[in-house]
Design goal:
By secondary structure, the protein is mostly beta strands. The chain contains no helices and 22 strands. The strands form five sheets. Strands 5, 6, 8, 9, 10 and 11 form a six-stranded antiparallel beta sheet that branches. Strands 15, 17, 18, 20, 21 and 22 form a six-stranded mixed beta sheet that branches. A four-stranded antiparallel beta sheet has the order 1-2-4-7, with no helix packed on it. It starts with 6 loop residues before the first strand and ends in an 8-residue tail after the last strand. The relative contact order is 0.18.
Length: 340
């Protein structure tokens, strides 16, 4: 299995001793919700000159895990970034359970062991909740959901020194076989009225359907469209389109993201895929295929929402008439995880 690169931080302690902390063996593949993150904590403590003891001995090693959503206001990427923590956990790696670091006092008998100079390795095993949203970053880089882990050392003076953050990926625990994702979606719109110069399309029908609500990354969505119309212009076009809608939520008024007013939001819409066909008699039945890009993903967090819709459109060649239907779909990650 391939692993991410090692992130290390070092600091000088009392009596010229050096402490180095790092996280290694973080899997490149994403961890599925409800699974376990497995990694290694590396700790190195150098010897002190002349064998002297540390003024502030290390009495605890911890693994800290954090997940957050974030977004930035348009044209102010360096200002107004909002981060909302969605997961926070700390795991004690050393010393063993039942040992209280507060029992340590200089010059007395130790009830709790201290970390002697040397090279140490500790196993990290943290269970990931199954309700966490998947990791992702928007195409424009203005928002996303991230997860990261680091190591912290506790010294005698209750001071925590953390290592650099190491990121890892999480995949939301969703199954394409879930009943809610296997429900078909269908919508229709029609109008029967008097024809006029202002409304030449007085009689029309448009219906569209997809076989289920949920799809995996890279799959194909078959969109079945049925149309009928009566108008002076018989040439028309039916179109199926997969669109992405991203909603950002940020706190207004603060240059550093500090909330001083009500939350505001803005949206961006992208065309992900498109298929179309023309008809000359006003009646059309077709099944158009939309390819889902491998980087598409539905995700919802406090700061950012990413949603997908299948849009069915009927319009004439002269663009005097246009009707649309929107059907929400859910795109879940493919099975590229280290804990399936």
């Amino acid at each position: 299995m391939a692993f991410l690169d090692r992130r290390m931080s070092s600091v000088r302690l009392g009596n010229r001793s050096v402490l180095e902390l790092s996280v290694s063996s973080v899997p490149e593949k994403a961890v599925r919700g409800g699974g376990t993150l497995e990694a290694q904590a590396k700790v190195w403590l150098s010897d002190t000159p002349n064998g002297r003891r540390l003024l502030k001995p290390i009495v605890g090693i911890y693994a800290e895990l954090e997940g957050h959503s974030w977004c930035c206001r348009p044209k102010f990427e360096s200002k107004g970034a909002r981060r909302q923590k969605i997961f926070d956990y700390r795991q004690k790696l050393w010393p063993p359970e039942g040992c209280d670091p507060n029992d340590y006092e200089l010059g007395t008998t130790l009830k709790c062991p201290i970390l002697e100079p040397g090279d140490y390795s500790f196993s990290i095993e943290i269970e990931i909740p199954d309700n966490l949203p998947s990791s992702f970053v928007t195409k424009n880089g203005r928002g996303g959901i991230e997860y990261r882990v680091r190591i912290a050392a506790e010294l005698g003076g209750r001071w925590l020194f953390p290592s650099s953050w190491t990121q890892f990926k999480v995949v939301e625990r969703q199954n394409i076989m879930d009943a809610a994702l296997r429900e078909p979606i269908s919508q229709a719109i029609s109008h029967n009225g008097s024809r006029s110069i202002l409304a030449p399309w007085s009689v029309f029908q448009l219906s569209a359907s997809v076989p289920r609500r949920g799809y995996r990354q890279g799959e194909i969505i078959p969109v079945c469209i049925t149309t009928s119309k009566q108008s002076p212009s018989r040439s028309c076009m039916v179109k199926a389109k997969l669109i992405q809608r991203v909603t950002y939520r940020f706190a207004s008024g603060g240059s550093s993201g500090k909330k001083v007013g009500p939350d505001r939001s803005f949206e961006t819409i992208y065309k992900v895929g498109e298929q179309y066909r023309e008809t000359k008699d006003g009646r059309h039945e077709a099944c158009l295929l939309l390819q889902i890009p491998p980087d598409s993903l539905t995700a919802k967090a406090d700061c950012i929402w990413v949603e997908y819709f299948v849009q069915a459109t009927l319009k004439d060649a002269l663009r005097r008439f246009r009707k649309e239907l929107l059907m929400p779909v859910t795109i879940i990650p493919a099975s590229q995880t280290s804990d399936v």
